[in-house]
Amino acid sequence: MKRIYFDNAATTQVDRRVFSAMKPYFCDIYGNASSLHSFGLASKKALEDAREKVATKIGAKHNEIIFTSGATEADNLVLRGVVYKNAGTGNHIVTTEIEHPAILETCRFLETQGTRVTYLGVDKNGLISLDELEKSLGPKTLLVSIIFANNETGVIQPIKGIGRIIKKYNKKNSTKIYFHTDAVQAFTKIDIDVEKMNIDLMSLSAHKVYGPKGIGALYVKNGTQIEKITHGGHHEYNFRPGTENIASAVGFGKASELFEPASYKKLENIRKYLIKKLKKEISNCYINGPSTSSGQAPSTSLRTSPETGNELNSIVNATIKGAEGEAMMLLLDKEGVSVSTGSACASSSLEPSYVLQAMGVPKEEAHGSLRISMGKDNKKDEVDYFIYHLKIIVTKLRKLNPLI
Amino acid sequence: MYSEKVLQHFYDPKNWGKLDNPDGVGEIGNPTCGDILKIYIKVKDDKISNIKFETLGCAAAIAVSSITTEMIKGKTLDDALKINKEDIAKELGGLPPEKMHCSNLAEEALRLAIENYRTKINN
Hints:
The complex is a heterodimer. By secondary structure, chain A is of the alpha/beta class. Chain A has helices at about 15-20, 25, 40-55, 70-85, 100-110, 130-135, 160-175, 235-240, 245-260, 265-280, 325-335, 355-360, 365, 380-400; strands spanning about 5, 65-70, 90-95, 115-120, 140-145, 180, 200-205, 215-220, 285, 315-320, 335-340, 340, 370-375. Chain A has 2 domains: about 5-10 and about 260-400, Alpha-Beta Complex (Aspartate Aminotransferase, domain 1), CATH 3.90.1150; about 15-260, Type I PLP-dependent aspartate aminotransferase-like (Major domain) (Aspartate Aminotransferase, domain 2, 3-Layer(aba) Sandwich), CATH 3.40.640. Chain A is built from 14 helices and 13 strands. The longest helix of chain A has 21 residues, at about 380-400. In chain B, helix 1 crosses helix 2.
């Protein structure tokens, strides 16, 4: 049976070149990077080379990359770390309703400890309002944390605009509000320059970009005041204790080096083709995102930075009315196509996607959403195969639907 | 996550569709919560002579509907009413905990269909 993987926003296949780069660091080069003997130094060199590669990719300095166990840890470290370290200065965080659970749940935890959190809403295109952001900043604000590109919809936020607003506010009010972004989905797919974008902190993950699971990073701009949240040795510039995961860091470095926006260029056409086919072949189907949701381009006021008003080329989020997401996903899987859904039935909660709901998608329609997330190796004919089966599946499920 | 039996009934549901001139209809759930289950019954000599369902929902909701129709076809109304959500889940080889509400829906829809029939008869 044909197997098509359309769930690259969940995780990706480790690239074989990444795996090859990692291999020596299990059985051959295994020293503890903190040891000063030759075994340790060999590991240390590999670790620092990897750090350099990740740093280069985002325009950061070498010592501004802290390896973590993944983006969830990076998100925890940044939110809790900034709040704990700067408790004397303020107690307010600004974030959005469409963050990854690693941000949202950490914010909710911090709220129980006295932190005040503002959750910015989004419009029907999934974009925050820069005016609203500006109004939410205050003398007690410590941190703004806004996802770079959303994991469910691929919608890219006006990152440059956000960075500018915070910088301007800080200058005017002599404050030091930090700007953090969870750039897990955007990393390597969009050119990121932390300097130009005025980003102080950024979470990254390796396994979304053909690297191994179990490693990520937090970019911490030099001078940023952040407290560590786990205690132990002085690893990772004294921000994150624990013997370094050399093989994984090497894999992360290699993936960072290998992939860039051009690696995903062909997805631009495949995505357009997929959207065209969805609209043509599947009745009562709409795409969640700015470029296509209403069939019109987003208003120019939203285009505050070059990336805004776009989605990642890798993600298409479609709502299919009258068919339930988990049922569609499982029937597609039976035909060899793996996608994901925002339906409540596919989660342990009874709530459908909060991201789609924040965009104003009614609950009953959010239950019928599918996320198709493509990777560098997906091909156009896979879209045809997917659409062919989706059409049959949607017809079948709609026949079962008592409301139709 | 799902048992073989759940998948079987989901991939190839039995007794689905509308029933012409049903003697009783029961519908439960709403689109907002994601599941709607509708059961149509025909009754002859106080027994369920025919039954069909229509369901908008996940794999578990569809499988639960399908197996419920199989379990009660030919049963007397009183016997049909004795079937509860645990029986339905057991017949399916178990359901994940977060899907137990689906078997509840089938039990409810069936009860409503039988009530609907009895109300009609009494009137």
